Amino acid sequence: MTIKNTPEILIIGLERLTSSFAFTIKDDTPVDFPEILNVTSFASGGSGIYELKSMVFHEGEIEDGIFSASVKQDNSHWFYYIDEKVFDIGEKPKHGDDVILLFYVRTH
After folding, report:
1. Contact yes or no for 70/93 (Cβ under 8 A)
2. Which residues, in sequence order, are bridge partners of residue 43?
3. pLDDT tens-place string over residues 32-56
4. Cα-Cα-Cα-Cα dihedral of 2, 12, 35, 70, to 10°?
5. Given CA atoms 1, 32, 106, 86 in this order, what sign does their dihedral have?
6. Per the domain annotation, does 1 fall within a domain?
7. Where in the sequence is the domain holding 91, given as residue range(s)?
8. Within a domain: residue 18?
9. Which of 56, 72, 97, 107 has the fewest Cβ atoms within 10 Å of its own Cβ atom?
10. How many separate domains does the chain show?
């Protein structure tokens, strides 16, 4: 696989729902993801170094879960947003089992 031109913002969606007959099941398998993502070996043009800037989570079950997000500020400090609440969490969250979207920004 080759990426012709790397985008400024790279959004990675993780497939967390599996359909089986009449049922839909949420996959809570923990996922490890880097703060710095290097896709240069797949890029034919432009740089492929990305920094993780935001994550979206779905916590709970399919029927009654809640969406939340974590955002990295310019000073490498992380904040967690859920409903109208904001929490200063300092470092990258460890929500690998609930993450559904990763937002990376090209650095080079």
Report:
1. yes
2. 3
3. 888 899 888 887 766 789 999 999 9
4. 160
5. positive
6. no
7. 9-106
8. yes
9. 107
10. 1
